[in-house]
């Protein structure tokens, strides 16, 4: 069964979920990558090193921007021509748009957000989380073509084989986009929340510390500043509860939870977060959870491995200092 | 201008779900508007305020599935329509997209078709793009701000950047949180919504849901975490030191 992986390229980086998808894809047979980007060859070399033997490319300048319509038309035609059967895509917001269009163009069933994948009687079976991770559902697709989407950090990154090469195959660009991208503004350069192995997450607790005698706005600013020092030491991304983003203290892309991101880092440190169900659904698959809250009754402690009953402002400087020491920075 | 906003009723997040004979049983059968769709309705109402848009809320479901529509009406949608199907369990995103595209073909007066980013049930987030592709409309995904001139312009909110994107009308959109917090229904709105007659659109047999993904098995997924170990010490510094020791002992850093 020929499997392809769509390589999502963001700002000069291959999305890690594209590389991680190599691991489940190899269970199906030969794995190829498809890369649509003005510098596709450069990224193809990386694909080869991670164990892919064949990369389908197009280097049209239009592919410097992601337009799902053109990507879908181009990939669908190539899939038909080169007889791929299963196409893997990262389960990012952008690639989901592509998966949606490809599912129409190829009349393909979508096995979304695979937690695991197996081949039984030559049939691809995927386990996916449903109802915000409360349940796991095993599914398979009855269609000829199948799409599989994978979240970051669900499958192991394959080993790198420096210097390994492979075959490049040009494919034809097809389709038109009726949307125009007029302007692009960078909004953050921090560690990406979805891919981060450590996340420091902030809740309502950052808005209040009586000893400071500051307004909520000023206190929050200070709290975010202090947490950023800790996050730097841990090479962590900053997360937040809905209360914090709704109040405008951090942008929405930091939100962890129901209407934000669902993440599973190795270490999740939440500070001043009480732990509503809407927050828990976003982080409960984290490996180790540390909760810091001054309220001993906060529900977050029921979902934590380590708990500390303390005001986050009192412990933050010390945590930063001791982690710095422990990690030999 | 006319706006179609697509909404879905879902189980509340707080409910407990269990499995009985491979079927999902909820501790509370009542359903509420999908939280992501509240943002879509909010976006539509902003268009009503800014551009005098006329809003129709749409759902696909059985005749009982009117909860999300009534919520949208209470928030300020002008009318509602329910695309009736018999078996909600067979409804996958592609079949939903096909039904809404067929409705739009017969009711082409809409300038914008707005979706929430995903549901909190399957949560694949595929529907908006599937609909756009089937209906042959330009697709503006992840909109955090919507402006209408001779074209539609949005802020497309990505993780590390915001894009300014435009297209012709009509167009399909998916909406994200940056649109602003959804407003609460007013008392008058709730009363109006409760009494509203909801027209039903019956699709032809050729549009019956034909899911191409099948469920083999469903299991509870919530892993019990061992009891929380509370770090104990006399002062913040000692607490912090002890916690760092414990975390380092997990060998994950």
Q: Specify the number of helices of chain B.
A: 6
Give the C-level CATH assignment of chain B: Alpha Beta
Strand order, largest beta sheet of chain B: 11-10-9-12-8-1-6-7-13
CATH level 4 superfamily of chain B: HUPs
Helix share of residues of chain A? Answer: 25-40%
With helices defined by DSSP (H or I, 4 residues minimum), what is the helix count of chain A?
Answer: 9
Helix/strand/pairing category of chain A: alpha/beta
Spatial separation of the terminal alpha carbons of chain B:
55 Å
Which percent band covers the strand fraction of chain A? 25-35%
* Topology of chain B as a string of helices (H) and strands (E): EEEEEHEHEHEHEEEEHEEEH
Question: How many beta-strand elements of chain B?
Answer: 15
The fraction of residues in strands of chain B falls at: 25-35%
What does this molecule look like?
The complex is a heterodimer of chains A (329) and B (253). Chain A is of the alpha/beta class and 329 residues long. Chain A is 28% helix and 27% strand. In chain A, strands 7-11-6-1-4-5-12 form a seven-stranded parallel beta sheet, sandwiched between helices. In chain A, strands 15-14-16-17-18 form a five-stranded parallel beta sheet. Chain A is elongated, with a radius of gyration of 22 Å. Chain B has one domain: 3-Layer(aba) Sandwich (Rossmann fold). In chain B, the strands form three sheets. Chain B has a nine-stranded mixed beta sheet with strand order 11-10-9-12-8-1-6-7-13, with helices on both faces. In chain B, strands 2-5 form a two-stranded antiparallel sheet. A two-stranded antiparallel sheet of chain B has the order 3-4. In chain B, strand 3 (17-20) and strand 4 (23-26) form a beta hairpin. The interface between A and B is large, with 100 and 84 residues.
Gist of the model:
With 329 residues, chain A is an alpha/beta fold. Chain A is built from 9 helices and 18 strands. The mean pLDDT of chain B is 95.
């Amino acid at each position: 069964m020929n499997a392809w992986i769509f390589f999502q390229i963001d700002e000069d980086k291959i999305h890690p979920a594209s590389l991680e998808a190599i691991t489940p894809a190899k269970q199906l047979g030969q794995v190829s990558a498809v890369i649509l980007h003005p510098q596709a060859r450069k990224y193809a070399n990386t694909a080869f090193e991670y164990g892919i033997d064949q990369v389908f490319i197009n280097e049209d300048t239009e592919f410097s921007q992601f337009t799902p319509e053109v990507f879908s038309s181009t990939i669908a035609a190539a899939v038909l021509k080169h007889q791929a059967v299963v196409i893997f895509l990262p389960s990012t917001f952008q690639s989901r748009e592509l998966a949606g269009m490809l599912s129409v163009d190829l009349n393909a069933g979508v096995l979304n957000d695979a937690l695991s994948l197996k081949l039984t009687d030559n049939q691809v079976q995927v386990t996916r989380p449903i109802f915000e991770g409360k349940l796991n559902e095993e599914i398979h697709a009855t269609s000829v073509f199948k799409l599989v989407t994978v979240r970051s950090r669900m499958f192991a990154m394959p080993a790198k084989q420096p210097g390994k090469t492979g075959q490049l195959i040009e494919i034809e660009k097809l389709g038109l986009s009726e949307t125009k991208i007029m302007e692009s503004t960078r909004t953050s350069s921090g560690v990406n929340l979805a891919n981060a192995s450590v996340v420091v997450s902030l809740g309502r607790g950052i808005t209040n510390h009586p000893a400071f005698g500051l307004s909520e706005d000023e206190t929050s600013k200070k709290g975010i500043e202090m947490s950023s020092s800790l996050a730097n030491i841990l090479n962590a991304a900053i997360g937040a509860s809905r209360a914090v983003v709704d109040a405008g203290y951090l942008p929405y892309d930091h939100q962890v939870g129901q209407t934000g991101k669902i993440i599973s880092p190795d270490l999740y440190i939440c500070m001043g977060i009480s732990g509503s169900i809407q927050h828990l659904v976003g982080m409960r698959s984290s490996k180790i959870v540390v909760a810091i809250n001054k309220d001993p009754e906060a529900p977050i402690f029921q979902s934590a491995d380590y708990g500390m009953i303390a005001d986050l402002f009192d412990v933050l400087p010390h945590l930063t200092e001791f982690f710095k020491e422990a990690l030999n920075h | 201008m006319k706006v179609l906003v697509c909404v879905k009723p879902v189980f509340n997040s707080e409910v407990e779900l269990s499995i009985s004979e491979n079927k999902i049983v909820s501790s509370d059968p009542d359903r509420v508007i999908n939280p992501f769709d509240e943002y879509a309705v909010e976006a539509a109402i902003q268009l009503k305020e800014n551009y005098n848009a006329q809003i129709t809320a749409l759902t696909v479901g059985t005749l009982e599935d009117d909860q999300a529509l009534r919520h949208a009406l209470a928030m300020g949608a002008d009318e509602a329509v329910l695309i009736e199907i018999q078996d909600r369990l067979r409804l996958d995103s592609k079949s939903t997209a096909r039904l809404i595209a067929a409705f739009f073909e017969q009711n082409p007066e809409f300038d914008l078709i707005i979706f929430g980013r995903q549901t909190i049930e399957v949560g694949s987030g595929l529907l908006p793009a599937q609909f756009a592709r089937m209906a042959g409309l330009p697709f503006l995904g992840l909109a955090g701000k919507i402006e209408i001139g001779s074209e539609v312009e949005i802020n497309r909110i990505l993780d590390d950047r915001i894009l300014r994107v435009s297209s012709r009308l009509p167009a399909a959109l998916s909406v994200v949180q940056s649109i602003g917090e959804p407003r609460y229904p007013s008392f008058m709105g709730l009363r109006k919504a409760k009494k509203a007659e909801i027209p039903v659109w019956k699709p032809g047999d050729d549009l019956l849901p034909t899911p191409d993904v099948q469920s083999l098995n469903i299991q509870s997924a919530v892993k019990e975490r061992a009891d929380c170990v509370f770090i104990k010490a006399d002062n913040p510094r000692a607490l912090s030191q002890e916690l760092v020791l414990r975390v380092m002992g997990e060998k994950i850093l």
